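Ligand-bound model needed. 6-phosphogluconic acid.
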Amino acid sequence: MVSKPELRIFDSLSELSQAAAEEFVSQAASAVKKTGRFSVALSGGSTPRGLFSLLASGDLPSIPWDKIYFFWGDERHVPPDHPQSNYRVANELLLSKVSVPRENIFRIEAEDPADEAAQAYEQTIRDFFKAQEEVPRFDLILLGIGPEGHTASLFPGTGALQEKERLVVANWVEKLKAHRVTMTLPLLNHAACNVFLVSGADKAEAVQGVFAGQALPAGLVRPKLGRLLWLVDREAAGGLAR
Ligand code: 6PG
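Prediction:
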């Protein structure tokens, strides 16, 4: 039984980021209370920058940084200090500014050959969750969507979309003429909660497509036993019926 997506529409990216930060804080508190830790995979791109800055600001209720474990849903095939690196953005805006222990941060080593990086990251995830066979369950996975409906680095028409076994794969993206390293749908769809952060008119067509049931990659994120929450600003929600 796939949960129905929750959709919340905001007047601005800044309000969306505030709501995302409150969601993060509340989910972290309940996960830590229940299991003693909070495992989260961050999304890449520019949309989450506001969330990262808010979390680092210290203006939110106390966050148990030492019990939070950071992963990434995908990474560009670049070194960690590259301007395109999703790790670099999160580290600069958030992780270097809060007291999260460095051993709680598990970046994708995308400076290595893509398939090696993917295999190593899958093992890192399996070791962390002590789940060598079954599919691990992240507490929270943050996601974005591209104008053509990709999410993480699952782009339309790419091989990674068909992956049914592996948790992390290298994915050749022809339109980018580049490899990416990405979590796969089996892992994304096993999370306790997937939250999409979406802002901007250039995403409106993709968002409308997802909610109209088109088989876009982002629309394939439908956690069977998890919560699916879309935080969308008014511009990106433009195509949704009121
Ligand atoms: C990446 C992301 C990707 C991103 C979307 C939206 O590595 O780029 O993981 O899936 O979330 O492309 O990107 P923007 O937030 O920059 O629009």
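Residues 43-47, 73-74, 86, 144, 146, 150-153 surround 6-phosphogluconic acid (CB under 6 Å).
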